[in-house]
Amino acid sequence: KNNPDAAEAAYEQAIAAGPPAAALGYEGLAALAERNHQNPKTFFDSAIKAGSHSAPVYVGAAEGLDASQALPLLKRAEQINPRWAEPVFREAELAPEPAEKLDLLKKATQPNPRGTQYWIDLAELQTNLGQAAAAQSSWARAEDSAATPAERDKLHQQHVDSEQERLDAEENAAKRERDAAHQADQQAQQAEANRIRAAEERA
Question: For residues 117 and 124, what is the distance between their CA atoms, to the nearest angstrom?
C-alpha cells in the first residue's frame, strides 16, 4: 500500500541532496500535490530551477501563464519529448494567428492520432477557415479515435451540428450580400430618378 508520508519524506530527502536528485524530489512533491487536489505550481517551478528533464513538469509550469511566459516552457517540453503531443497542442491554443494554429494542431495529431480533442479543434478551425473538405476528414478522424460507441455517437452529432452551423453561416452571409446588393441597386435607381427629376425641374 502506498504511504504518502513516506513518499514525501523520500522526496524531501532527494531535495536535500541537491541536483540532480532535487529535481526528481520536486517532481514527486508535485505529483503528491496533484493527487491531493492541491496546486503543484511551486514544485514545478522548483523542479525546473533544479534542472528537471521531465516534459510534464514544463507543461505543468506553463499552466495559467500568458503566452510570452508559457511558450518557452512548452517548447522546452516539446524538445524533451518530441513524441508527446500535449505541448504542441498547448502551443496551438496560444497561437495568435490561424495559420500558425492550424500548423500546430496538425503537428499535434501526428504523434497522437488517437487524440480526439486535437482532431475536434483542428476540424473546427478548418471549418472556420473555409476548408470544408479537410474539416470533414478531421471530423472522421475524431470519430474514429473515440474510446466508446457512445462517445463516437456524441462526436458524430457534434460533427452534424457543426456542419449545420457552417451551412447556416454561409446562407446568412449570402443573404447579407444579396440584401446589400439589392439596397445598393435601389439607392442607385433612386439617385438616377432624383437626377432626372432635377433635370426636368430645371427645364
Answer: 11
